[in-house]
Amino acid sequence: MIVVGIMMVIAAMAMPKLMTTIADVRMRGAVNSASGLMQQSRMLAIKDNMLRKVKYSNVASGGFMYVDVNDDGVIQATEPQVQMGSTIMAYSAPTGLPALIATNLGYTPATVSTIMFNPRGLPCSAVNTCSVGMVIYFTDSRNVGSPGWGAVSVSPAGRVKTWMWTGSAWGD
Predict the structure, then answer these.
(1) How far is Cα 27 from Cα 164, in angstroms, rounded to an integer?
(2) Taking the complete model, does pTM exceed 0.70, yes or no?
(3) In 99-132, which positions are buried (b, 16+ CB within 10 angstroms) versus exposed (e)?
(4) Second label for 129, Cα 20 to 30 Å away, from 54, 117, 146, 150?
């Protein structure tokens, strides 16, 4: 009984750290998936010689990022997409922590929730406003601890990079 009691105390002490680690892994996976989808959208824009938009949608089963190929604002089964998870949401700006700035990125970013790529593969904030650096933020609602934050930045040249909030600074 004593051994079982000691094991239960150790398990109870380890559980919050384990839950936080699992949430961190899910967040990193969602941010990496979003990054890959943005790179795929850029390649499609170049290949198809058309403007391509990456959008975020929250549906009953969780958040999705998708390339809106037909530009109708509705996710279709035939459009490239990634599921972000039921607890991960896209945000236009982080709350409670500093945003990514020119010091981190090397350019001043526009914070967006939709990222477009023109036929040359350059990121656009509007149809005629291209070569703009952008950042989209993601957070999760965790059962234990403070929410995790991640971001995907797109440089004015189209380079896509992931960022994770370490608790004190943005890192990769």
Answers:
(1) 9
(2) yes
(3) ebeeebbebebbbbeebbbbeebbbbbeeeebeb
(4) 150
Token pair 């699992």 is at which residue?
22
48-52, 94-98, 145-149: the lowest-pLDDT one: 145-149
In the chain, the N- to C-terminal Cα span, in Å, equals 46
- Which CATH number does the domain housing residue 109 bear? 3.55.40.10
Within the chain, strands assigned E span 52-59, 62-67, 81-85, 88-91, 110-111, 115-117, 123-126, 129-130, 134-140, 149-154, 160-165, 170-171
Structure confidence by residue, pLDDT tens digits, 58-114:
776 778 899 999 888 888 889 999 988 888 888 778 888 898 888 889 998 887 878
State the Cα–Cα distance between residues 164 and 25, nearest whole angstrom.
11
Which residues form the domain of 131? 2-171
Total count of domains within the chain = 1
DSSP code for 87 = T
Mean pLDDT across the chain, nearest whole number? 87
Cα 149–chain centre separation: 9
Instruction: Quote the CA–CA distance of 68 and 56 in Å, as a whole number.
Output: 10
Closest CA to 45 of 55, 33, 35, 53: 53
